[in-house]
Amino acid sequence: MAIWDSLDSEFAALDAAGLRRRRRTIDERHGAEVVIDGRRVINFCANDYLGLADHPALVEAAIAGAKGWGMGAGASHLVSGHFAAHEHAERRLAEFVGCDAALLFSTGYMVNSGIVAALVGRGDAVFADRLNHASLVDGSLLSRADLRRYPHGDIATLERMLAESSAPRKLILTDSVFSMDGDIAPLPALFALAERFDAWLVVDDAHGFGVLGPQGRGALQHYGIRSPRVLYVGTLGKAAGVYGAFVAGATQVVEWLMQKARTYIFTTGAPPLLAETICAAIDLIEAGDGRRAHVAELVARLRSGLDHPERLMASTTPIQPVLVGANDAAVALAAQLFEDGLWVPAIRPPTVPAGTARLRVSLSAAHTVEQVDALAVSINRRLVP
What we know:
By secondary structure, the protein is of the alpha/beta class.
């Protein structure tokens, strides 16, 4: 069994490079604190930016949804799996982010894997930020369009690429908040280029929905961008505290995606109870200015409390990466913090470029000032200059 036996050597190579990943199992969750193997630690891993994932209102909405609709949808949305709860959630999401229409998907990965191929294909071109999420990369590859990746945030290079392209259809593809760096894409400049070169602009706001913009309405509202050429992708398992994702935009474009996005057409609809919970989450996000202000205070406090500001990346968002460098050093530092009761993930290649392994600190409205201060003290004590 040579194929089977080769896995052993490949696992050994992962171990030697400090790249093997392992899961921890959460036994209990109480806000920002979790219990793992009988030990209570503070969770700085989760993307639960507003602290809504175990909010009583969402639990109650899920219970009510289960009682009203049962569990599974039973079929794809286009067969018999589209319920009134889904319809209401889509209308509520579209209105909330300032778009005409929205389409619910089971996951953000499925949105990004499906909508690019619905908009462009062979002979067309996708222009993507080099630090885009893996789902955007995979969606581009599945489209069979020519994939051109520009250096992170480099508007001048992107402009040159667009000017040189003779593709009949062009699509600019970007995260809003970059998940491993925490910085925000130059969306006004990207939109200006999309207008100038008659291109689609797809913005994955997975880490901005609920956090950016007035009342947490997202990155497009943050910059006042609205156009039929812009598609907005939002994730519901992060700041919203639920599960799933959606794409929003002009009615005609969303209708086209419903007809052509394979990851929407050929999958069972999400449980309708989740749609009920999504609506409850939007209400909490809309009323969550206090939560967002608290997160901003925690960001400022962490950044001012660390003794190694040169290790911090230029982020004003709840994602606060602390650069370490070597894979083994990042893993060791994360293990030491865990011993201090602080759970922070070590992020390594291929998620980030080689030599830039880091701690990825995710701050949440569920964290207290005292917990963030404890994290800063522990990093200062453990991080080797």
